[in-house]
Design brief:
With 187 residues, the protein is of the alpha+beta class. It contains seven helices and five strands, in the order H-H-H-E-H-E-H-H-H-E-E-E.
Length: 187
């Protein structure tokens, strides 16, 4: 019998094997469903030592993905993500939206630029799709990190700044594959 700690390693290897064959298809779209399915199957029954949740812990509150969208904490960007080649639901946290996507006519007037939310969102999603393509063969258990260059809304500077984002693969409310982009320090 193998030691208990070998189970996560076996599942991680299985996720890597699934990821290596399923991340891209011939039409240059991303099979994110396989990526998320690998993440979900690889994470089943894997409870690290000292896991904060267990049978003796009461959950105070829980939110579904749909609840978070209604509350405005998540922004559904699936329609444009599909155009960028991502075939599963994608959401951005409100913090990512405000930092990387939100832009108004007043911002253009103040900065003397010509940007809009659609173009800024496309940049975030196109770079996400590119990062997913490069993720083939990596573990679906780890978040993916990528960079976006964006002109900050605050201040008068016009120089684009690098922003680190991370993407978590998980299940939607009905267990369907879904991706969420958030700031690196967020959970």
């Amino acid at each position: 019998m193998s030691p208990p700690c070998s189970k996560p390693t076996v599942r991680r290897q299985r996720a890597r094997n699934v990821m290596g064959s399923a991340m891209t298809s011939g039409d240059d779209e991303i099979d994110v469903a396989a990526f998320v399915a690998a993440a979900l199957s690889a994470s089943q029954d894997v409870t690290p030592p000292g896991h904060p949740f267990g049978d003796d812990v009461d959950i105070i509150d829980a939110f579904t993905r749909a609840d978070l969208m209604v509350l405005g904490e998540l922004v559904d960007v699936t329609a444009m993500a599909v155009e960028a080649g991502v075939r599963v639901p994608v959401a951005l946290t409100r913090a990512v939206w405000e930092d990387c996507v939100a832009w108004t006519a007043a911002d253009n007037a103040r900065k003397g630029t010509l940007q809009d939310e659609q173009g800024r969102l496309w940049d975030v999603l196109f770079l996400l799709a590119a990062r997913l393509r490069r993720a083939a063969g990596t573990s679906a258990l780890e978040p993916l990190h990528y960079e976006v260059l964006r002109v900050p809304r605050s201040g008068t500077g016009l120089q684009p700044r690098r922003v680190q984002l991370k993407v978590l693969a998980g299940g939607g409310d009905a267990g369907e594959p879904a991706l969420t982009a958030l700031q690196p320090q967020a959970d």
